[in-house]
Amino acid sequence: MFQPPPYRFPGVTSAFCAAILAFTAPAACAEETPLSSAAVDYSLYRDGEVTRASSVYGSWTVVCDEIRRLHQRFCSLKTALRDAEDRSIAEITVSTGDNGQPAALIRTALGAYIGKGLQLWVETPPQAATKAKPAQHLPEHRLDLISCDAKGCAAIWAILPGEISALNQGASLHLRLTRVKSLSLLTPVIAAPERLTAVEGAASGFGFAQAVASTLK
């Protein structure tokens, strides 16, 4: 059963929240904040009103929900960012924002320190054949964690055209966050330096171009 989202992120359409619902906890978005998008028409998400299809392309999973009464389909792409020991430190869901441009929801694992936010960047691989062109580190984004629940925290990334182009060509996505070694009720506000540790993870762009192409068919 498809459930309508009781939440929205600032600057992101209700359709985007509907698309990411398959991957996120209900508390991921704040309900009815001053920055919320227009309210969701819940009748569009009743049983039988939405048809869901999913597929996998390389490192990326695609989920598309077709709302029959609107004759519209909303798709999102998902992958996990993993550390050097292959542990997932965050999940990312790519869709579009209110302006129709690519945007992503990043959900961190439990323990991310709110005060440090996230650092995210796209890194292109060296030229495969000759290695003449070195890897390129695109400009880094500093993202605030805007919502947290019992499972982790969330941030929004407005994806730039150059980053989409790089991911289409197999670039990797990198994330750095600060994690609190032990949690307490005061963790979001106060954390001694010795309790903080930097964590980095990455996701491959393998399959990204094919995943995007599948949403346009």
The Rg value, from CA coordinates, equals 18 Å
What would the principal axes of the Cα set say about the shape? globular
Strand order of the largest sheet: 1-2-3-4-5-10-9
Helical percentage: 10-25%
How confident overall, as mean pLDDT?
75
- Low-pLDDT segments: 1-40
Q: Could you give the distance between the termini? A: 24 Å
Question: How is the main sheet built?
Answer: 7 strands, antiparallel
Q: Overview of this structure, please?
A:
The protein is 11% helix and 38% strand. The strands form two sheets. It has a seven-stranded antiparallel sheet with strand order 1-2-3-4-5-10-9. Strands 6, 7, 8, 11 and 12 form a five-stranded antiparallel sheet that branches. It has a single domain (14-215), classed as Invasion associated locus B (IalB) protein (Immunoglobulin-like), CATH 2.60.40.1880. The protein has three helices and twelve strands, in the order αββββββββββαββα. The chain is mainly β and 217 residues long. The two termini are 24 Å apart. The relative contact order is 0.18. The protein is globular and about 55 Å long.
Itemize the secondary structure elements and their pairings.
Elements: H1 14-20, E1 50-57, E2 60-67, E3 72-82, E4 88-96, E5 102-108, E6 118-124, E7 136-137, E8 141-143, E9 147-149, E10 152-158, H2 161-168, E11 172-180, E12 196-203, H3 208-215
Antiparallel strand pairs: 1-2, 2-3, 3-4, 4-5, 5-10, 6-7, 6-8, 6-11, 9-10, 11-12
Give a summary of the structure in a few sentences.
This protein has 217 residues and is mostly beta strands. Helix content is 11%, strand content 38%.
